[in-house]
Amino acid sequence: MYLNEFLVVAMIHLLAVISPGPDFAVVIRNSVSAGRKTGLITAAGIGAGIFLHVAYSLLGIGIIVSQSVWLFNALKLLAGAYLLYIGIKALRARPQASTGEVALAAVAMPARKAFVNGFITNGLNPKATLFFLSVFTLVVSPQTPLLIQAGYGIYLAAATGLWFCLVALLFSQPRVRSSFARMGHWFDRLMGAVLVALGLHLALSEWLKRA
Q: Where would you find the membrane-spanning parts of this chain (predicted)?
């Protein structure tokens, strides 16, 4: 009975999740810099972050946030500030001592930190909040039982986590990592610049619209 609705939700989500953004940048950086395990844990954190947006939508909190200018802008500033924080840390990466060979040694990153990286990057993203709010208000029928809607949410979280696990597996391949390793600290700085740009865009998006 709800198969068609689910397929529409799944298709819209697929198109959204494969679009490059902050989540994509964080998974790539952690996978290349710290290895496969760290990349997979980061992906799991992103998947867990989806539950926040689903909860917002099902509980009606998302509507309150989206309609409150100061709450929504505060969320943007928090998300932008976090991306700026991890981006600036990456920009400050220093050259490693040269050994004459390209090293693939992973930079140590605690599992908890990797998970939090993914969770906060996704959980604070106001664009994700708006996306899920749109899905659960415009695509999902009000007559759809809450249990079914919760099932959609579980699928969306699992599918998001799986997608970024695939991204982590790809970018943690030895051949791929060795290619980035040749860039040395410049890779960290490049990803840092991307994260800073995303953070600034997110934090200043409202001001840019008015300019």
A: 6-28, 40-64, 70-88, 154-174, 186-204
What is the tens place of the pLDDT at every residue in 100-131?
444 555 567 899 999 999 999 998 887 788 78
What is the pTM assigned to this prediction? 0.76
Total structural domains within the chain: 1
- For residue 171, give its domain range: 37-94+108-210
Give the Cβ contact number of residue 99 at 10 Å. Answer: 7
pLDDT at 158 exceeding the cut of 90 = yes
Cα distances (Å, whole numbers) of residue 31 to 120, 144, 174: 17, 39, 11
